[in-house]
Amino acid sequence: MNLILILLISSLTLNTYNAEDVRKLDYVSQYKDLAIAEMYRSGIPASITLAQALHESNAGASPLAKNANNHFGIKCKSYWKGQTYMHYDDDFNKKGELVQSCFRAYDTVVESYVDRSNFLRSSSRYNALFQLDMNDYNAWAKGLKDCGYATDARYAEILIGLIKKYRLYEYDNAANPWQMLIEQVNMANQP
What is the pLDDT of residues 110-149, one digit of tens each? Predict the structure, then answer.
């Protein structure tokens, strides 16, 4: 009896999450379908999209995510013609003082996800990523760091840690949502 109780308590302990984990899992639940749809549209693994969004937006809780719907930390660049949001990040003036950076702003989170995919797809800087196996999230995480997506030397390690901890790799093999919809329509049209 005691052994059963110990095993039960051990298994419950192993499967518990703290409040921060629950918040991140809620975020994944909310945006996983969008990440999967973007994976099929753009060729970027859903696990990488979700890990970046979790990290860059603090699971939607960062000021940039809350005030500008920017879940990927994408800065304006000179060619950006859309909405902008000024925010302190990692830019310094000639005196070494931290200055506000210009970030892209969006009306919706969906726009942020779509623009991030388009941003990676349209920049030659990221071409090497699209030669990688879509199921190799390790290579994608390292590739993003190597291509200069982020300044943090641990960026790939952080993404890989999030992917493993929240099992985001499972979404890389999810069914195409458009194909599922087409199949449902076809089934509904059968006599």
Answer: 999 999 999 999 999 999 999 999 999 999 999 999 999 9
Residue listed under structure tokens 């599922």: 180
Contact 120, 44 (CB under 8 A): yes
Spatial neighbors of 18 by CB under 8 A, at least 6 apart, are none
98 pLDDT band (50/70/90 cuts)? confident
> In terms of CATH architecture, what is 24-67+111-183?
Orthogonal Bundle (1.10)
User: CA 187, CA 111: separation in Å to the nearest integer?
Assistant: 31
Q: CB neighbours (10 Å) of residue 52?
A: 26
- The label of the residue with tokens 């990290």 reads 55
- In the chain, where the domains are located: 24-67+111-183
CB contact at 8 A, 38 and 113: yes
In the chain, the largest separation of any two C-alpha atoms, in whole Å, equals 74
- Rounded to an integer, what distance in angstroms lies between the CA atom of residue 100 and that of residue 61? 19
Centroid of chain to Cα 47: 7
